[in-house]
Amino acid sequence: MVESQNIQKIEPYQRLAAYYDQLMDYIDYDIWVADIELLVKPFSPGSNWLDISCGTGSMAIRLARNGRKMTAVDLSQPMIKLSMEKAKKADVQIDFQVGDMVSYSADQLYDVIINLHDGLNYLLNVTDIQSFMDHTYNLLSPGGILLFDVVTPLLCQTHFRGYREIFNDEQGGYERYTSYDPASRLARSVFTLNTHDADTVEVETHIQKAYEQADIESFCQDSKYEWWQIIDDETLKTGCPESERYLVMLRKIV
Predict the structure, then answer these.
(1) Please, where in the chain does CATH 2.20.25 lie?
(2) Interatomic CA distance for residues 74 and 87, integer angstroms
(3) What percent of the chain has pLDDT over 70?
(4) Is the pLDDT of residue 203 over 50?
(5) CATH annotation of 20-152+212-251
(6) How far is CA 90 from CA 26, 62, 148, in A?
(7) 2 pLDDT higher than 70
(8) Whose CA is closest to 143, among 226, 73, 68, 63?
(9) Is the pLDDT higher at 245 or at 23?
(10) Is the pLDDT of residue 237 over 70?
């Protein structure tokens, strides 16, 4: 069907931002927030937090309700626009900004930085990951914590090999097809979005890379962080080869 239509390639989350909460409706954000608060509690962090690669602000809004002073950053302007609308409805104050997680800088330091919802999996090479680690380290106060999640090859092979989804609404909806190549460990999600012109569709392509535990250990060891821990996000115990998703917590000691 698509082959007979005009295809316009657009930037990731240019149109899909409007459907992001629909795509993520399987996530219990309240549990995620409770887990994060539990993991950082032993370190008694301050209240100045940064959510980098914040999506539509679901985590930032909940953390703001918990009394955190939140800054939230995303590369996508449409995502930030939706985040601001959601925060206004929730009656919370959050400093939303458009920015790149790899190179974001600020004139203040943060006590905790979070990067969730597969943000790091969008970084496809070691250079970008090293830049991300360096920039977050420089943005943290002494004793500050970086916490991010990573999708593993096991999750991709289990859930995203030949995954297809169709969703329709008054905006036209989308069709999603996700493929996973175990050799390169790249997951490619192609979203075909209908437009008001029946002869035209818009296509967003999202590419993510799955990382093994050994990769994550290498990233941590090569970083400036003095302490880190790799955790299974389901059990909150030490990560293992059977983990589908890791939570990685690093601490800037000095």
Answers:
(1) 2-15+155-209
(2) 15
(3) 98
(4) yes
(5) 3.40.50.150
(6) 21, 9, 25
(7) no
(8) 226
(9) 245
(10) yes
Q: Which two tokens stand for residue 94?
A: 């959050």
The number of beta carbons lying within 10 Å of the beta carbon of residue 157 is 15
Asked if 60 and 87 count as a contact pair (C-beta separation under 8 A), the reply is yes
Q: What are phi and psi of 118, to 5 degrees?
A: 70, 20
| Span 2-15+155-209 CATH architecture | Single Sheet (2.20)
Residues 6+ apart with CB under 8 A from 68: 47, 48, 49, 112
Query: At 22, is the secondary structure helix, strand, or coil?
Result: helix
How far are the Cα atoms of 34, 158, 178, 215 from residue 161, in angstroms, in the given order?
31, 7, 7, 22
User: Exposed (0-12), middle (13-18) or buried (19+): which is 88, by Cβ within 10 Å?
Assistant: exposed
Q: Which amino acid is at 222?
A: D
Give the Cα separation of 68 and 114 in Å (integer).
12
Q: With a threshold of 0.85, does the pTM exceed it?
A: yes
DSSP SS3 for 206: strand
Cite the residue boundaries of each domain of the chain with CATH code 3.40.50.150.
20-152+212-251
Say if CB 49 and CB 74 are below 8 A apart.
Answer: no
Map tokens 């821990």 to a residue: 229
Q: In one letter, which amino acid is 58?
A: S
pLDDT tens string 99-150: 999 999 999 999 999 999 999 999 999 999 999 999 999 999 999 999 999 9
Amino acid, res. 14: Q
Which runs of consecutive H residues, i.e. helices, occur in 141-208? Answer: 153-159
